[in-house]
Design brief:
The chain is α+β, with helices and mostly antiparallel strands. It contains twelve helices and eight strands.
């Protein structure tokens, strides 16, 4: 898949798209149409990081993934210490964790209909854990996420494959990966959080300027009146719905577009929960 982005109302949205959609290559389904998928970057990258964290949090799994001649006692101690440091860097929210730790080790990430495969270079993994090489550069570092195109030939590099069972589902107008039974570890949707924040800011400005209309206040953010009217309704969401959105535990079929789509937004909290899939 290939990284791309779109800009809407001054907001940049990142995606990964099938290379067929970029090159216009016809699919093999016989209908003469270009086939492929477009997946939100935050959704895919979040699941990849989640799988990598679970791998490095299991020292035994890491040791068993090393070449046999690297599983001796002198190698196990530094490898275990390195995995602990990697997990700590993630849990501490280090901004450079992806670029400095994971991306140099990843050969490719393959998004399938029922799972996500993350392939780590075996030698790169050894270098990282045992510091056998001080090289700072590896193939694929120029991309947000290393990937292989549908028509590329297989690499001869030995890899450690990590799979994450995940089902590709349509949520609103987007395709997203959903992990069954893993709702507590889902990452929050940045686009939904952005809507809530903008709605609160819009309401605050309106309250601070009693003589202004909604259109006047919205124009500061270059928002049209109808869009601002739908946006400001989000201030009346039930507190538990807002909390779920910030925690990333809202229903999987509740995308940002659904929050903004219905102009007949119910004010009753119980009705909101039913309309948005919480009840």
């Amino acid at each position: 898949m290939t990284p791309t982005h779109a800009v809407k109302k001054g907001v940049r949205y990142r995606y990964y798209v099938s290379r067929r959609l970029v090159t216009g290559t016809r699919g093999a389904d016989g209908n003469g149409q270009t086939s492929g998928q477009r997946i939100p970057a935050a959704n895919l990258e979040g699941l990849v990081v989640q799988r990598l964290r679970s791998f490095f949090a299991d020292p035994l799994a890491v040791i068993e993934s090393l070449p046999r001649h690297r599983r001796d006692a002198p190698s196990q101690k530094p490898a275990t210490e390195a995995t602990t440091a990697i997990v700590r860097a993630l849990d501490d929210g280090r901004d450079d964790a992806w670029n400095t730790i994971f991306r140099p080790m990843i050969v490719r990430v393959q998004a399938r209909l029922d799972r996500i495969d993350v392939e780590l270079g075996a030698e790169r993994l050894v270098e990282r854990l045992l510091e056998t090489n001080n090289s700072d550069s590896h193939p694929g570092e120029g991309d947000p996420m290393p990937r292989r195109g549908e028509d590329d030939s297989d690499s001869t590099e030995v890899v450690v494959r990590l799979s994450l069972p995940a089902q590709l589902k349509r949520t609103g107008k987007e395709m997203k990966f959903v992990v069954r039974g893993d709702g507590d570890e889902r990452t929050a949707d940045p686009s939904m959080i952005r809507l809530i924040v903008r709605a609160v800011r819009l309401a605050r400005r309106l309250a601070e300027n009693p003589g202004s209309t909604l259109e006047d206040v919205a124009s500061r953010d270059e928002l049209g009146g109808p869009y601002a009217a739908r946006l400001i309704r989000l201030n009346y969401l039930a507190p538990d719905i807002v909390a779920a959105i910030f925690d990333g535990t809202q229903p999987v079929d509740l995308p940002a577009s659904k929050l903004m789509a219905d102009t007949r937004f119910p004010l009753d909290w119980r009705a909101q929960r039913a309309a948005l899939g919480f009840a």
